[in-house]
Amino acid sequence: MDQNGFLNPPIQTIDETSELNRLILNAIKTECRQFLRSDLVSIFFRGSQLIDSYKSDFDIVVIVRTGSNINSKDLTNRLDQKLRRNFFHISSFDSVVISLSELETSRKLQFILKVLSIRVYGEPLELKISGFRPSRELIFNLPNVEEKFSIINDLLINQKSSDTKKIINYFVKYLMRAAYELVLEREMKFTRDIPICQDVFSKYYPHYKDISLDIMQYYNLNNVNVKEFVKDSKKFCSILLNELEKINDKHEQYQHPNN
Hints:
The chain is an alpha+beta fold. It is about 50% helix and about 10% strand.
């Protein structure tokens, strides 16, 4: 376990010797500099993996000095049009623009930069951010499982996407990481590895082990029964939200014991 409480630390380096990576990085840097000019501070890739020989989504966090007149959607559209036209490896693209003042006041944003992202341009802001211990403020997925399920359900049931396997894989990872967030404070370790998430969750909630394994079996599975997956994932979402409510109630009682 590392100093940030990681079971398996995310990758912190980037292979800039790859010609493809160099081309994509340079294109992003150029567009951001032209669009943001002197307001640009740093660019981070969010996630633990960059481009390989297959299609991948691509997310960046852009830090700016003020951010008062900058729209994330405008930057995303600009980059999306230019990059996807030139690089078929990019299946989807998203950017988030954050001002320095927002970063200074949000531990969640600081965590994203220091632990879940890789800086590829600009000032080394991650070095100025203090270390983290797993806590409630680092819960990202769990509160939004119901909303995510609604989106996934719509995509799958109404066949709004041809890439069913990719959508299911994404939601399996989302659910397992959400499940792990239920035990994050008790474990005092952070991980995004989904088999570890499932295994640790099951140790704390053995009565939900079977349903968590049912969800895991859909990962990378060909010819998935979509209706069964939707039914199982809906059930698991309800379980997670019910358990989260219990934890929140206990936390509220601890914070206000006389109420």
